[in-house]
What does this fold into?
Amino acid sequence: MQTLTLTRPDDWHIHLRDGDYLPTTVGDVARSFGRAIVMPNLTPPVTTVPQALAYRDEILLNRPTGSDFEPLMTLYLTDQTRLRDIIEAAQSPQVHACKLYPAGATTNSEAGVGSIEGLYPIFEAMAQHQLPLLIHGEVTDAKIDIFDREKIFIDQCLMPIIARFPELKIVFEHITTQEAASFVAAQSANVAATITAHHLLYHRTDMLSGGMKPILFCLPILKRDIHQAALIRSATSGDPSFFLGTDSAPHPRSRKEDACGCAAGCYTAHAAIELYAEAFEQAGKLDYLEGFASHFGADFYGLPRHSDTITLEAVPWVPPIALPFGRDELMPLRGGETIKWRLVRPETGS
Ligand code: NCD
Ligand code: ZN
It folds into this structure.
């Protein structure tokens, strides 16, 4: 049987939520990933180190028995972020980055940043302390077409930040366009990007033709097929500027299938590494999966690569259509459909 063994991978961008959603989200991410960069967009957002540490404790309480999954915490930047918060974050071994959401760009970003220039003193301190800046890269002007928001963000916001702070480590999160892919490839090693499994596997026609599919609606929104192709080329290129970040972002079914507005976010944590394997295999580049999934992100964040491995086997399986999600349920990507690769569960003994 065909199998695939990789250094244990990490997920460099995930939404675990909180409260009674954690058993599902933490259980799923800990199946295959050793660590994950945990997004801070709770309500209210995680803006200080004490809040991040309390959130981390809550996540650890929900780890499956025997798991040593390690949540890597982040702070949510606001117009009120203080230099003191950055220094504390830089000194905390548990906090690994700060996240910039332009106000109104996506789910739970109402408290996000109104004036990016207003944060320049904060970026300066982050550069000094080698604390990476994670960016949701979309402009928020309602007049700008939703399919152009990422591309325009590059010129309007990202280029000025990089020009002013060349030493700042930046992750352009969940990129979705060929413009973002070629931009990142042309920057120094301080600028990287994460790419989701769903942006590698789907394009906007998959979401919109034959009836709108809420399960595929996320932000930044899926783009046309030429952009998907560019993302596949970047992810499978062996360029260490591109690494795995699922952006797995669960919402209760009622919020996804809401006639008054579908919540943005795709849930992939139940099958993430399997879905990436499928995308890499379709591109004929399975050999490049390990660098993307298990090496480049750790190198960028200055963390050791894992010394253990996971194994996938080519045994088709079908995830459930719905998963328990606190008192709700959630609709995972590919629920009820076949996935080719399956994670081999470690022997647990008898
Ligand atoms: C994310 C969420 O639901 O928190 N949604 C999404 O569509 N990706 C927020 C985000 O990362 O944009
Ligand atoms: Zn996200």
About this structure: The chain has a mean pLDDT of 96. The first helix runs from residue 22 to 32. The first strand starts at residue 3 and ends at 7. The radius of gyration is 19 Å.
